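Example record

The entry below shows one chain as it appears in the dataset: sequence first, then structure tokens.
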Amino acid sequence: MAEAVARHLLESGAVAGHGKDVFVASAGLASWDGSPVSEETMVALERKGISFDGHAKRLTAEMVRKATVVLGMTRSHVVGARSLVAGEPHQDKVKVVDPAGDLEDPIGMGQQAYDALADRLARVLPGRLAEVL
């Protein structure tokens, strides 16, 4: 979901000074490569007018090394991503999406939780992306 919202914001001009030139990808610490995006995620994105056809990917050390910035949904995600490149300068590029607090995974919490996450991402990401890019 974060990938789709971020890409939409960048392509729509919601992030001043950045647009389609920014490559956005999403990966998880416990994701299974190729797993489909949940139906609740797709509904939440559709309600925001965002189309998405991505699949899950597992985050790797190489992805962190190649990235300009890595944003984790929770502080524990940041710790996990940094551990992939422990002792390397790349760990400093891993940051939390929302410094005000974690964005918890809505799995098993119903459509309302997915919709709320999509809304929060849409509110937080424009400023955060402008800040970290």
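Notes for this example: The beta strands are 70-72, 94-96. The chain has one domain: 2-127.
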